[in-house]
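ugh ok so i messed up the first submission bc i forgot one of the chains. this is the corrected input, ALL of the components this time, i swear. 1082 residues overall. if the numbers dont match what u have on ur side tell me asap before i send this to the collaborators (the ones from the other lab, u know who)
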Amino acid sequence: MPTFAVSFPTIEFTFFFVLTATISWLLRRHRTSQKVFLLVASYFFYAKWDLRLLSLLAGVSLVDWAFAEVLVRLRAPAARRAVAFLGITFNVGVLCVFKLYDFFRASVSSFAGFLGLSAHLPILEILLPVGISFYTFQGIAYLVDTYRGTAYRPRSLLDFLLFMAFFPKLLAGPICRSHELLPQIGGESPENVPDPSRAIALITSGLFKKMVLASLLATHLVDDAFGLPASYSSLELLIAVYAYTAQIYLDFSGYTDLARGLALLLGFEIPENFRYPYAATNIGEYWNRWHITFSTWLRDYIYFPLGGSRRSKSRTYLNLILTFLVCGIWHGSQWTYVIWGLAHGVGLAVFKLSLDLRRAWGLDPYRRRSWAWAVAGWFVTLNFCAFVRIPFKSADLEVTGEFFRGLAQLTARGHGIDPVVVGVTVLTIAMNFVGRPIFEAFVRGHARLPALARPLAWATIGLVMLTIKTRDVAPYIYFGF
Amino acid sequence: MPQRSTGHPDQRRPREFASPISVLIALWFSTIVLSLYGAPEIRARIVQDSWLGARPWALSAATWLVRAAELTGFGEGHGYVDALSARAKSDVVWLKRGLAEGTPAPSPEASGSAASGQAPVAAERPPLLPSPAEVRRLLLIGESSIQLNLGAELERHFRSFYRDLKVTRFGKLSTSLARPDVLDWPAKTRALLDEFHPDLVIGNFGGNDAQGMVLSGGRIVKYGTPEWDEEYGARVRALVDLVRSHGAQMVMLGMPIMRDPVFSNRLVHVNQLTQDFTEAAGGVFLSSWDLSIDRAGGYRTAADVDGVTGLMRDTDGVHYTRLGGEYIARRVSERVERHALLVPKDPALAVSFRREVASRALGRTVSYLAYVPQLSAAEGKRLPVLFLLHGVDGSFADWSEHAHRELERASSRRQLIIVTPEGGKNGWYLDSPRIANSRYETHLVEEVLPDVEAHFPVDKRRGIAGNSAGGHGALTLALKHPGLFDTASSMSGVLDLTAAKDHPAIVEKLGPYSEFRASWEDNSALHLLAKHREEARRIPLLITIGASDRWARVNRAFAAELTDLGIQHTFEEREGGHDWNFWVSELATHTAWHAAKLAAP
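and heres the new structure output, hopefully the right one now
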């Protein structure tokens, strides 16, 4: 590609980051200059993706800040509600224009065609700004929290701009709440680097997941099998289903690990986004572990406003389904994503129903289940998540249909099974069970290293990663959402 | 709804701190070590123009870095690592092979040598006439475009549209002919050729090519220099040669326009090089640029497939959407049919053959296309032939370009063999007494017609039709050669050559009208009428014209002349202009008319 963008695991980004960290730590006793510098660095980073859309990031940040400033000064409930509504509409509007235009265009014209009319909205090609969802979601969360009176107020506009644009989390989250990041930005700079061992462990984990494992999967089977399922055997398609589920986890959680590790090296702590999701034994637990900052965002800003579980039981199920419908549509203007969201919503509603039934029968829904139950639950959950990703990954419903037809043929002969893909997939799922102790052991081991040995250790880690990485590291999947 | 745990695991343990100095030292140390290790790659990236815009200072810095890496012994380390990874790769290949042998995987040997393996299939279906090798195995190779939507849609379309066609595809993101270090395309192609034995290879390269190249000696040639062009051309040529040496046809598909104008401009150049060197090596270059631009020549955003309109390109402004891929695949397959014999699965579509004729009348080798209905070809039935001529500034491929499937359908439905001969950019289907190699009348009558009769199952019934200058050509040829044609028709014909007396190309051919009036009138349909009245009375004539066509007046006058001379004819004037919309819609009328008149005793 001729357009160059600073993705994390590149030599360009390494230089950018090391320089930024150096200057930032040199400025630690001049907090305002340090923050101005970090803001400039973040904007530079974003401008490298798309200069034209930098104004969008800055503009959204400024407008959100202005709405919040008006909100805190207003007393009349009706006026506050109106301002909050306007602010949220602005953010949602920006998001919709960029993400959903084509979806609505196609749907409106096909619906009009169904009615025998012709309503052709113009076909506009809209460039999707990288990371737009993540910063508009953060803006919405901040506005709603301000309206509810629970937001942590930034000390200055500068703090707020940095809160919105802080580069490690800018492109694909985690979505930070005001109280998670603003106090750190508003406070004094730490004198020392917090948790360096954890930072290095996170960076190592992120690099390993993304550069080595995820790329192996992307380049070997997944993209091709989902591009033209008809040319693969059922067995290969089945492997592709699991491999994609492994890949999306490696890709996204690898990015988050890197973001968190890099933020730590700059002296900031940003929240966890993944907690070994494929070890979940039910769908509720899965969403408690998968893309945590987004699932809690959905809970706080869509599910609760819909009434959550405080209304009738049936309303609770409906709210779950609606929430995940929104989640699906957010992923993209495609029916495939709608189906994925709907499936998860229904899955969660059914799970909730099972809890309610157990309660109704006088059983404790949270009672520890037997070992066999847990394994069965894990198996069903993992397979559910993997299979509903078939529409998620398909270019359109036709490909989804083709994929399922291919699976149903029960053929085994094809291009040949790649042991690398099977191995990485199994390793990824196993990592969800044994990852934590290994990670903690790594942190403890590193913490014991004398200061002089650390440069050698870090260089060694980097060399190992460079040596075993796949030649072409594909772009992160969630940058596109 | 899931609850977020409040006890953040990170905060449950005592925190560790390190002084910024120690962390920065470690960061810088590892960055320097990594850049020494990655020096060759860093240099390659700078050469690629991507990072620092190939600034000279960056390049020399990177070269120093490489030298430093060699001095510190990192260069050797690389060799060791490469050897290790090569070893690991061969292990994986071995493992794969082991697995494949365990299950009876389809092996390339199954098809065997073309003769023995294909024999049973060939016996079922007698070969079509004439029989240039029918394409049975198609290989698609290229960059991300082939790996992603475009490649998938090409594979899907070719597989579903054509009979007995096996398709294999290999596309790889961020590879290019310019970067054999990323993927050695010639080696990969050779392996694919040996494994799959294709008859036809479609390659799509160039998207990642407009970057510096490292020559075998380590010298760098920058994009935009003559050395680069030479090297790139040589690589294209080598690939085409390789494919052809394996007995397959090579079609190079050009790159489309991109949203980024700078990138697009580079691709114009890369496409030109690809075309020149592909054709020089005996391959076929097919453009996809014209399919990807809008009316104003800019980046086209929307595509239309079967009435569904949507975005043509992905949000990156580079790759195709699925819809866009499908659109291109359909159009490209029609173009490929002009060069390779592919039989549509749908028996209601005729097969198009291309024949080359070494023309003495034109002093060069020229082609024509023949559309032959599938069943009649198989049954050995003889059919009437319709010669369909194109207009000014066109070629034998004109009709195929605008109405390929319509021609296939019409040929089959009307049981006509339709031939589209070459009429040159300004041939006017006449023999120029003044300039050499411009005897299009002789070409058609004495070269194309005998070739058609020798190679296709035609009988003695012949029709001739054409649009614009081709309409004029159809009527003049029918009048000038009594007994040769049984029907003649014109759509939007320029029916009086003398009405175009200022046309420089005709002036060049016949001389200025004022001096060479006789010569003009001997080649003008309107003036030939009186002279060949008998022939005009013998053969049925059809003349159609669009009401808003600027030649409508001339057509009306021609029809009036026919009436005055007492010549039976059909004259139809309807809505339409002088354009392909009108001609494509006229095609059905004209083919039906010719078929009906030729069938009559």
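quick check: The longest helix of chain B spans residues 74-102. that seems consistent at least. The two ends of chain B are 83 Å apart (CA to CA).
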